[in-house]
Design a protein that fits this description.
Number of strands: 26
Number of domains: 5
Keywords: ATP-binding, Helicase, Hydrolase, Nucleotide-binding
Protein name: Superfamily I DNA RNA helicase
Shape: globular
Structural class: alpha/beta
Helix content: 40-55%
Bound molecules: adenosine-5'-triphosphate
GO cellular component, one term: cytosol
Radius of gyration: 31 Å
Organism: Lacticaseibacillus saniviri JCM 17471 = DSM 24301
GO molecular function: 3'-5' DNA helicase activity; ATP binding; DNA binding; hydrolase activity
């Protein structure tokens, strides 16, 4: 019976592939003719632009003709692009057209639907449904029996009669299961048992119910996902992007979505998922890049730099100050400061070609002429408008200067054409005045830029003054030293990470700038690495965006040493007034059960973590002495590489990684990764654990998990993050004395090896 069913299913696969092949043949022909059409129009376009630009009438005619030709080219190119997209989509389906089937009874009719990564229709017949189609949610959410699914016209009730999963490779069904579960374990076992890749894969064939809730949420303003390591947070957010794009095709573009990711390696690692689903990648940024753009000319300390520094020294008072500056209350204090509106902001001269154009005094006077009780931001805006008005007056006076007329006569034809593009004039005089004005405006452009970009306001001095006005959490003298150090840093073009969001907030609130209303969705991965002030700032900077924050309070590598996370509860208070939804993911898919259970035991309060039922060896804890540490490690790497394609040696910081690399690479092909790397490789890699955030490797070796290196409770989160990067194998190498965090673990969770010469059996 089973064989018969499989045979029938294979025949259907063959039929669908044959239809796809045939459509692909047609597309090739259609692309060719579309391309010819584009070339023909472009050719005409080139001929039509050869016109006389000196006669006003000709110019106007040319403009209209050029616009029309441009539209024709755009339409032809779009036609070609649509065909090429379809071609790519079908090429993806060609070898594996679908992964699921549902049999659904609705209003007395029974329908059989096949679900894949894209829709494929043949003569009005849906041979494959896109996984994001409303009806496909049954596949992910429903167990057999009565089910509901949402459509644009309302909820529909149906009965799910059967659910079948397939693995199809090169057109052949290699596995097939009927399942009553959301998505059966057999399929997941097979997928998760595979070797890691240097690029993340999509999970659409095996999305789990809670992950599906994240993916298909369209109503929350702020979706917060607290998910244990390896629970699919990043995967869910990427499929969520694909889902949102599909559902708002006409109103939403990938460029209107931005994902804040932990580092470049990670950004690259995930960048193949959306294209594999036929979608463009959303924008990606790291927090460091975001700050670098907004503080041009300054170096903003990165999380990594700060972490490395903290390893050397972090006094209690610094911790207290940092906690204060990173809180939401600190931003509220800035609001209070601006509201009090006591002083005139710090203005600076606007210069042109080395000479003062508008002096700080003039700007100050304009500001002080505004109604005393107006809000600081309103006075600032009025000052800015007054400056623009004065600039325009200066331009009007300047056009009569000799240099302007000389500059006009030197304009080339094409410069003139660009200048006049789209403008119409009543008379030649009007046109001449317009041209002169443009010439002066060009020369004065730096002044306009300075006004427009608020360069006449010194936000750093203003921040310094704000710091001296607030109630401080430490002794006044310590606070004062900190303020001086911040200002001295700024003189040197250096900014501490904890000052970055507050300065931007102060600047934006006063100047009304820095806001991007075009972004519709912001996703923050590894939210536990962000301070509340930073998260709130992102909301402020992207006020129209719906937010998705994903993280794991237990993987708090960067801040656990000064601020244990209790994020989830705080978020509700800070983002009041928004529709906030919290989803927890407790099942961990990445690692084998023995590895997940080992990691779980490292933490306090970890009962919620559930291991996915995938078998494997217990982690090994190897203790060696300093002399033999390197040879022990080298043996271990050799041994692991016989079965695993990627072995990552994770150290606590970059200095340890560099040092290890210097010794190990002499006899072994190893790759050292640092913050500037973009690309993952297979083989043996060495990197600090914080750089491995979000990544995964077939085998992980934690190096120097010794009593000296992992001493305190705060190190638990680091060790947990480290362990949870492993898919199939985890080894921890301790020098002399294992960390107390390991010694405390139940001994049945790992294999202990004391041998120093031959650590692996
Ligand atoms: N439903 C699923 N089907 C198949 N694989 C899955 C599924 N969910 C998660 N995985 C796999 O589990 C691994 C971990 O997923 P992911 O990186 O998205 O988790 P995460 O919660 O972001 O992890 P971390 O916080 O530890 O970085 C990946 O290999 C991913 O492909």
């Amino acid at each position: 019976m089973k064989n018969k069913t499989k045979k029938a299913e294979q025949e259907r696969v063959n039929h669908v592939i044959q239809r796809i092949d045939s459509r692909l043949d047609d597309i090739v022909t259609q692309i060719e003719s579309a391309h010819q059409e584009t070339s023909r129009i472009e050719q005409d376009y080139g001929d039509n632009t050869k016109v006389n630009v000196f006669e006003v009438d000709d110019r106007m005619e040319t403009n209209a003709a050029v616009q029309q030709q441009k539209q024709m080219v755009a339409r032809a190119v779009e036609n070609e692009t649509i065909l090429k997209n379809e071609q790519q989509q079908l090429t993806r389906l060609q070898t594996s057209p679908y992964f699921g089937r549902i049999d659904v009874a609705e209003d007395g009719d029974t329908d059989t639907l096949y679900i894949g990564t894209a829709t494929f229709m043949d003569q009005n017949d849906f041979l494959v449904y896109d996984w994001r189609a409303p009806v496909a949610s049954i596949y992910y959410n429903g167990t057999l029996g009565p089910v509901n699914y949402d459509t644009p016209t309302g909820q529909i009730s149906a009965e799910l009669l059967n659910k079948r999963q397939f693995t199809i490779q090169d057109g052949k069904i290699t596995a097939m299961f009927d399942t009553n579960e959301t998505v059966g374990d057999e399929m997941l076992q097979a997928v998760l048992g595979e070797q890691s890749d240097t690029a993340m894969q999509n999970i659409v064939a095996t999305i789990q119910k809670e992950q599906n809730d994240i993916i298909r949420d369209t109503t929350s303003d702020l979706l917060v996902v607290q998910g244990v390591a390896g629970s699919g947070k990043t995967s869910a957010v990427l499929q969520r992007v694909a889902y949102l794009l599909y559902h708002s095709r006409s109103q939403l573009d990938a460029d209107q979505m931005v994902l804040f990711s932990p580092n470049q390696l990670f950004a690259n690692y995930i960048s193949a998922v959306l294209p594999s689903l036929g979608e463009k990648n959303m924008r990606q940024a790291t927090l460091a890049e975001f700050f670098a753009k907004r503080f041009s000319g300054l170096h903003v300390q990165t999380m990594f730099e700060r972490f490395e520094r903290d390893q050397i020294s972090l006094p209690e008072t610094t911790k207290t100050i940092r906690r204060f500056k990173e809180s939401h209350e600190f931003l509220t204090a800035i609001d209070g400061y601006l509201k009090a509106n006591r002083d005139t902001p710090f203005f600076v001269d606007i210069e042109l070609n080395g000479e003062v154009f508008f002096s700080a005094n003039t700007i100050t006077r304009i500001y002080q002429q505004q109604p005393k009780n107006a809000l600081a931001a309103d006075k600032f805006l009025a000052t800015k408008n007054a400056l623009i008005k004065r600039l325009n007056q200066r331009i009007g006076i300047e056009i009569h200067q000799d240099w302007v007329q000389e500059a006009v006569t030197l304009l080339s034809d094409s410069e003139l054409r660009d200048l006049l593009n789209g403008h119409h004039f009543e008379s030649g005089d009007d046109e001449a005045r317009f041209i002169s004005r443009q010439v002066v405006a060009d020369a004065f452009a730096p002044v306009y830029d300075a006004i427009y970009n608020d360069y006449f306001f010194d936000s750093y001095q203003e921040y310094g003054r704000f710091l001296t006005t607030i109630e401080t959490p430490v002794d006044a003298s310590i606070w004062q030293t900190m303020v001086e150090s911040v200002m001295a840093g700024l003189e040197q073009h250096q900014l501490n990470l904890d000052d970055a969001a507050p300065i931007l907030y102060l600047r934006d609130q006063l100047t009304g700038s820095g806001i991007n209303r075009g972004i519709q969705y912001v996703f923050v991965d590894e939210m536990q690495d962000y301070s509340m002030a930073q998260l709130f700032y992102l909301h402020h900077a992207f006020p129209r965006a719906k937010l998705t924050f994903l993280g794991d309070a237990k993987q708090d590598v960067f801040t656990s040493h000064y601020q244990p996370s209790d994020f989830i509860h705080e978020i509700g208070d800070v983002f009041k007034g928004m529709h906030v939804r919290l989803i927890e993911l407790n099942r961990s898919y990445r690692s084998t059960a023995p590895i997940t259970n080992f990691g779980k035991a490292l933490l306090d309060k970890s009962d919620h973590i559930q291991a996915f039922n995938r078998d494997g060896d217990k982690p090994q804890v190897i203790t060696t002495n300093r002399d033999q540490a390197i040879s022990t490690l080298a043996h271990l790497v050799d041994d692991l590489l016989t079965t695993q394609s990627t072995v990552a040696i994770l150290t606590k910081d970059q200095a340890a990684a560099n040092q290890l690399y210097a010794t190990l690479h002499v006899d072994q092909p190893v790759t050292l990764l640092n913050l500037n790397d973009h690309q993952l490789k297979t083989g043996c890699l060495i990197l600090p654990v914080y750089l491995a955030k979000g990544l995964e490797f077939d085998a992980v070796i934690g190096y120097d998990i010794s009593a000296d290196t992992y001493q305190s409770d705060a190190d638990r989160d680091i060790l947990y993050t480290l362990s949870s990067r492993a898919l199939h194998s985890l080894s921890l190498v301790c020098i002399d004395q294992p960390s107390p965090l390991l010694v405390d673990l139940p001994s049945d969770l790992y294999t202990e090896i004391k041998s120093v010469t031959s650590p692996v059996q």
